[in-house]
Every structure is written in C-alpha cells, then in structure tokens.
Write a structure and sequence with these properties.
Number of helices: 8
Number of strands: 19
Structural class: alpha+beta
Largest sheet: 6 strands, mixed
Length: 337
C-alpha cells in the first residue's frame, strides 16, 4: 500500500492498526453496500512467458486451465502438504496475480522467488490498491459507478485499468492502479457505497466459508481441512506440486479427520486466529484452531475454525480450554462432504 493511498484514507477518517483499517466515526450498516480498503491483503504479480508453467508446478490448482476471464482459489504448500498461503489467483496482461494475506506476503514472495532459477518469470510485490465491495446490492452499486461487473462468481472483468473480481453474489475485489485509487474511491462513494473497516470484509468471507491463511495459522492445515477442495481450490488431475502427494492421499485414502466449520463466539475476551478449541471428546487436548475471526453485528464474534470432525459432530466446543466460552455452530453456504 502506497503512502499516498494511506494518507488519503486517513483523510477519509481511517485509522490503521495491526494490518487492519477502521473507520471509527462511521457506524457500520450491514444492509448498505460497503467499500473496504483491503489493507490486510497484498498482491504478488508473476510476469513472463513461462508464468503459467512456473505457477502450475507450485500451486494446488490447475493454472494451465485458468481462463483469461476467470479467477480461482489455490494454495502454496510445504512438501508435507501444510498450507503456507491461501491464494486468490487471476490472469493479468502478461502473466498472473495472486492475492494473499499481507502479513505473510513478503515471505511468500521470497519463497516463490527461490523456485524461479532459469524460468522466464519475474515476480514482484504490486503497489496496486485492493478495495473490497460487499453488500446486498454490491453488483448494482458497481454498475452505477461505471464499473463493469463480471457475470458470474469467480470471474473477472477489466476496463480502464480497473480489474473487478467477483467472489460471489455480493462480494467483489477491485484491483486499482495506485495512481487511480483515490478517483475510484470517490466514484464508489458517489454511487452510494459507505466506507467500512477490515472486519466487514472478514465477516463476509467467514459467512462465505472462504478461509485466509495468516502468519498465525501457517503450516497448520492440509487443504481439505480448510474445505479447499469444496470451494474449488484443488485440482486432483494436474501434475505434481509441493505437498501434492499428501493432499491426494488425504482425498483418496479417506484420511481426513478435520474440517472447517463456522462458529459463533460469545462476547468477552477477543478471540484470535490460532486460538485453540476444546471438545469433551479430547479432554485437555486441543481439538482444533480458529482460522479467521470478525465481530458479529448481533454481538460476539463469528469465526471459521478447523476441528476434529467427530468432535464437531457432538455439537459442543469451547474456546481456549475445556471450560472456556461455549461455541455455537453456524451454517456454511456449502455442504461438508
């Protein structure tokens, strides 16, 4: 994120802390369309004639089959199949771009760069502004702002240097050149969108069942534990990539013991990614961990959490200890296979 973009948002009432942005003077309206500076995310660009082959050999999804107007979820894993980063990927003019958590982006950039060797690929951290648009009529608001709206989920449109990636019916990611970020923000405001903080986007992603790996949860989970094959983040028909053997074995040999669930956390101590979950079946041993957390407009917090499937079946789970706050299981928008 450029200094000029930060200064502009500060002038709009934003405050920054711990890779998050807040608008303390503005009351969040869940029924209104919100625009969120996605400062907790970063963008890595991969350019060059061998970008497809390079990324295809490293990531969990099929990069070779990624259509020019499409986006996909994918992951970068250790050789043991543990997820180092969850990624939103799409094609750009002469290569690809991946969106990931900002707190791990520099390290992932360095790690990916170690694989370049003689490949005709150049990797760089982008200074483009990322803006989330979320709300019941997000598509209509984008159209009113003169932004081309992709026709379906996990599709993208590009017009006038502005890229719009549609996550689902009500959530969009805009990738805007740094020099045009302020003008784009004003267009969105004039169309009726309201600024909101990082928590608004995080809540939307939690309700969509879309996890984000951050520094607190790196190397904790195999892809299927995060429901990644259910959201289209894994290809089982492509060639090898780091961790592929473990991911495939988990899929075909029935070894999956953990899944990701959506939970409500009661008000009290603020929960955080990486906090342990306990269930009666595991006693004083941790049965899982929180992945992402956001305040709920109804009080308390909502979270995505990975835990033992047999423990989740009991319907009883507690945070940070066997006698900790009791967690309530909430629905996900997709079925757990």
């Amino acid at each position: 994120m450029t200094q000029s973009w930060t200064e502009f948002l500060t002038g709009e009432g934003a405050e920054f802390a711990d890779s998050a942005v807040h608008f303390p003077a503005l009351q969040d309206d869940m029924e209104a369309c919100a625009i969120v500076p996605l400062v907790h995310l970063a963008l890595i660009e991969s350019h060059g004639e061998e970008s497809t082959a390079f990324l295809h050999n490293l990531l969990s999804n099929d990069v070779a089959k990624l259509a020019p107007d499409a986006a996909q979820w994918t992951s970068f894993n250790t050789p043991k199949g543990r997820m180092l980063a969850s990624l939103l990927m799409f094609r750009d003019l002469d290569g690809h771009a991946i969106v990931l958590a900002s707190d791990i982006a520099p390290a992932i950039h360095r790690r990916l760069s170690m694989y370049v060797l003689r490949s005709k690929v150049a990797l760089k951290m982008s200074d483009a502004a990322l803006i989330g648009v979320t709300g019941p009529d997000a598509a209509g608001m984008l159209a009113q702002a003169g932004i081309e709206v992709p026709h379906d989920r996990m599709r993208q449109s590009v017009a006038d240097n502005l890229r719009c990636v549609r996550i689902d019916a009500s959530d969009f990611v805009l990738i805007v050149p740094a020099t045009e970020a302020e003008a784009t923000w004003h267009r969105l405001r004039e169309a009726g969108a309201r600024p909101a903080g990082t928590h608004r986007w995080q809540l939307a992603m939690i309700r969509a069942g879309l996890p984000l790996i951050t520094a607190a949860t790196q190397e904790e989970f195999v892809a299927q534990m995060l429901n990644f094959e259910l959201i289209g983040g894994v290809s089982f028909n492509k060639g090898c990539y780091p961790g592929q053997e473990i991911v495939a074995r988990t899929q075909y040999l029935g070894k999956l013991k953990k899944r990701m669930y959506r939970l409500h956390v009661p008000a009290g101590d603020v929960p955080a990614a990486g906090d342990d979950i306990y269930t009666p079946g595991f006693g004083t041993q941790s049965a899982g961990k929180l992945v992402n957390v956001a305040p709920s407009p109804d009080g308390g917090f909502e979270a995505l959490a990975v835990m033992q499937m047999n423990c989740a079946d009991s319907g009883e789970a507690h945070l940070r200890g066997p006698d900790g706050p009791k967690l309530e299981f909430l629905d996900l928008p997709y079925a757990l296979a």
